[in-house]
Amino acid sequence: MQRIIEQKIINQTDRALLIDVLADATSLSKQVLKSALDKGCVWLKSGKKINRVRRVKKPLKAGDEVFIYFNEKILASVASKPELLLDKKDYSVWFKPAGVFAQGSKWGDHCSLTRLVEKLLDRNSFLVHRLDRATSGIMIVAHTKGAARDLSKIFAERKINKTYWAIVEGKFSADTLTIDEKIDGKTAISHLKLLTFTNNKSLLEVRIETGRKHQIRKHLSGINYPIIGDRLYGNADKNYPEDLQLQAIKIQFTYPMTQQLIQIELNDTIKIRP
Fold this sequence. Notes:
The chain is of the alpha+beta class and 274 residues long.
């Protein structure tokens, strides 16, 4: 049986070490706790701030609150390694494989892109945009607060051009099509172009003017062309053999701090194919 512990611990003693407090309050060994701390499932509230904590021998103050969200199954997960596409020191661009989260949750962050990048580059990493866990493709990670602010701003202002590929079953009904259907009451516009039709599958190029949650998946499902491998909006059940066939294949933007035009496209060996 998989162990799950969701517990709040109030520390009673000044200078008590985090690892000792956790070991005393849970049934977990110090070896297991060290791994859990590294994987990001322990949080510390000191004063009004709550932050993820990894330092095993961090001294605590009396009254500090420690939260542990231990799920054996989640912590046993192993993420595929992302591939570095461009390193500009204050930000970097990566290929995120399917199955890798954009960011962590309270239950851990060891399978998130931001944490994986932190470990690979030994730099702070800040999330500036998202891809669904099931979607593969290009993602930008900031490494300074200034870069995170600037990149988040141009994403919010829609000054970053993103191109996706999606594979759907059957022959797509048009060479080009624009879908203008609101999502959660907000404007959502997707532009579709048929690239190839082979093996009874259509490869579509998708450009989006807006970035609503699951926009491409919802729009394609809404016109009865759900993406192959879509377990949420499509026809794939949990045992379906293929990953979601949606990929962010190209990104183009001007970096505000340097005014340098950046354009990156996945090479053909990585791109999804029908």
